[in-house]
Amino acid sequence: MSNxxxxxxxxxxxxxxxxxxxxxxxxxxxxxxxxxxLRLLCLRSGARIRRADNLMHARKHLRxxxxxxxxxxxxxxxxxxxxxxxxxxxxxxxVDVVLGMSGDTGTEIFAxxxxxxxxxEKPIANLGVFQEIILNALPxxxxxxxxxxxxxEDISPDPIALQDDFIHISDLMTLNRGEDMLDYIAQFLxxxxxxxxxxxxxxxxxxxxxxxxxxxxxxxxxxxxxxLVHERIDxxxxx
Length: 239
Hints:
Helix 4 (81-89) packs parallel to helix 5, helix 7 (159-174) crosses helix 10 and helix 9 runs antiparallel to helix 10. By secondary structure, the protein is an alpha/beta fold. The strands form two sheets. A five-stranded parallel β-sheet has the order 2-1-3-6-7, sandwiched between helices. Strands 4-5 form a two-stranded antiparallel sheet. It contains ten helices and seven strands. It has two domains: 3-137, 3-Layer(aba) Sandwich (Rossmann fold), CATH 3.40.50.2300; 159-238, no CATH class. It comes from Pacificibacter maritimus.
């Protein structure tokens, strides 16, 4: 929808139960499962959302779409989300809130150095925590006033989205460019493993990443990761 059409939609004021009502949020996130979690958090809070799964698509969105809030994952398939954060933070017409997001330890510093207003550590499932991060980052002129209840509700993303992520990675690993994508694959799987509470897969992905970084043999690590991914795909098919 163009900016002209969106300007025709009446602006709604936030309420105590839906404190983000009236806000437009762009989520830049490659994982379907993580995106589904953010989608639920936004909708329960009253915000309208759009999603881009890489930097290229995000930039296309931003040429025609003016969000209030942009949430950028740092690990994207076509580059670092910190680059987009830097562009948004230093644009002449700045969006209200730019948030960095990652589940990798030590990455918050890169998001904040690039100009992010705040940082979301994945996984995030608590509605009240999510709302507080965005509300605290909003300029005072657009921040809703008054007392409101703090929700302790946790959301549960659709497991079908997690299966979509596994199938996507399985496809990447079977393509000729699979080895060139191993660092991205390891980062991606570690992220969705933490979001879904899959400690076995998280350990396998982190071991692969560590061995590649250290220049150690990693063939057995790739086989272990591929086996775990296929196992989870097969388990879902059986269910």
